[in-house]
Amino acid sequence: QVQLVESGGGLVQPGGSLRLSCVVSGSLFSIYAWAWYRQAPGKQRELVAAITSGGTTNYADSVKGRFTISRDNAKKTMYLQMNSLKPEDTAVYYCNRANIAHNYWGQGTQVTVSS
Predict the structure, then answer these.
(1) Hey, which of 27, 64, 70, 110 has its CA 20 to 30 A from 52?
(2) What pairs with residue 50 in β-bridges?
(3) Distance CA 12, CA 7 (A)
C-alpha cells in the first residue's frame, strides 16, 4: 500500500547539482518526519538529511552546506537539492520516514558523481 517513488538521480560531474524528488502514496505525510538516506555498494545505509513535521532540518556532517531538504505537504512530496556534488556522494538515494525502524524501501534513485 505504501509507495515511495524517488526520482531525479543521474550522472553529474564533480561540483554539479541535482534535485531529487520523493512522492509518497498510501501513507500519512504531513504529521511525520521524513528523511533522505543513501547507500553505496559495500556500505551501510546512512541518513543524509531529515525534516520534521515542524520544519526542523538535520543533515549529516558530510553534506552540511551543500544539500537542502524540503517538503510540500499538499503534494506529499519531499525534495533534496544537492549542490557542489563530490564523488563520495555517489550512492543510491532513498526516501523514508525519519527516526523509525523501516520495513519498506522504495527503488531509490542512483546518483553518480564522476568526471
Answers:
(1) 110
(2) 35, 58
(3) 15
Instruction: Using the structure block, give the residue that is written with the C-alpha cell 543521474.
Output: 10
> 3's torsion region: left (phi>0), alpha (psi -120 to 50) or beta?
beta
pLDDT tens digit string along 90-112? 999 999 999 899 989 999 999 99
Residue 7 CA to residue 31 CA, distance in Å, equals: 23
CA distance 110 to 55: 26
67/1 Cα distance (integer angstroms): 30
For Cα atoms 107, 83, 105, give the angle at the middle one, nearest 5 degrees: 15
Q: Are 66 and 7 in contact (CB under 8 A)?
A: no
Cell numbers at residue 99, please? Answer: 527516526
Q: What is the pLDDT of the chain when averaged over all its residues?
A: 97
